[in-house]
Amino acid sequence: MDDEGFIWTDLVNSIFSEEEAALILSIPLSYFRTPDTLIWTKEKNGTFTTKSAYHVAHSSGEDYGTGPASSKMDAGVKWLWKALWKACVPTKVKNCVWRCCTNALPTQANLQKRKVITTATCIFCKCERETVEHVLLECPRSVSIWFSSSLSLRTGGMGSGGFQIWMIQMAGELSKQSFDLALVLIWSIRKERNSSLWTGSGYPLSNPSMAP
User: Fold this and answer.
1) What is the rounded CA–CA span in Å between residue 130 and residue 156?
2) Rounded to the nearest 5°, which phi and psi values hold at 121?
3) pLDDT confidence bin for 45, thresholds 50/70/90
4) CA R_g for the chain
């Protein structure tokens, strides 16, 4: 309806399909000509608040993640974070592992993706693309470190599902002491990788819990 009270029937019919136009034109209009007002239906007074918007967004996220796989994954991630932050290891180790799980480390692959460097070759093996999964689990150097440790873990090919998935599995299968050792070992491999990159030297990891 325009300012003079006429309904723009022709305009509606020219823009929308016949069915859509009929539905639009069937909407009853007020005779009181009150000005349009924005109303936020999630608050009783109709006023938008960030608190109610947060609850809407949170509930929407739950609606989209109701499948069994999603629920299982959410539970696994929560279990992992709980185990990580309660671990008896230095804070720098926890932060390092958290960054690994969220793919927030400046690996060669991530740096190449951000166009910081042109190649993403692994610092250790000089062959494969250096992702978080490769450098910490699948590189021959890392595979040897994991298997020769007291954990005797076979990590070759275990990173195909993602590092976070592997960590969830470790948090559920390892004892608390072994999980703490795994965290320190991850930090140690990362530290050796950085030493190899910046100084061309590393350090032996036969006893990763004593690594500086």
Assistant:
1) 14
2) -70, 140
3) confident
4) 28
